[in-house]
Amino acid sequence: MFIALAASMGIKFYFGGTTTLQLLIFGLLVMVVVQAFRMYSASYLWGTQAVTRIEAEFLCTSGPYAYVRNPLYLGNFLIGISLCIALNEWYAYILFVISYVSVYSIVIPYEERFLEGKFGNAYADYKTQTGRLLPRLKGYKGNMSVTPNYRAGILGEIHVPIILGMFLAIIYLLFVK
Questions:
Q1: Which domains does the chain have, with CATH numbers?
Q2: b/e per residue, 17-47, with b = 16+ CB within 10 A?
Q3: What is the pTM of this model?
Q4: In this predicted model, what pLDDT tens digit does every residue of 159-170 receive, in sequence order?
Q5: Structure-model confidence comparison of residues 99 and 52, the more confident one
């Protein structure tokens, strides 16, 4: 997805496009709020969300996971949209959404099959009462409560604001007039 956004920046640069400081700031504000939500969500996984293979020591149904099964992926979508806002190009939205759908239409069903196999009926019940990417208003009432590890959540996500800051700096330097 970052490749799609970088490609959008390349197209914008090639055609000499610009954006406004107001859109950059609005995109930044949305990004800060969403990244805080991602760190909060990651704290319920004790900072173990960045993995190269699918695994789960427990079925997390607490915190944001009581409302949406994939709060980190929802956060990725909103962060991508905030970068599109800052970039201010219609094709950035299209390229980002295509890349997002391409990635998560494969990843999410794969993870769901894994969780169904590992947690059986507990995951099936959880799945019926929570949204995949759109939060439900009524939270899931599971038997397990997870105590978040905020330090691990922040440290597990610290690379994301650094990357996003670089994207915003490039947008500012190249396109804000």
A1: 2-15+22-46+59-175 (1.20.120)
A2: bebeeebbeebbebbeebbebbbbbbbbbbb
A3: 0.91
A4: 999 999 999 999
A5: 99
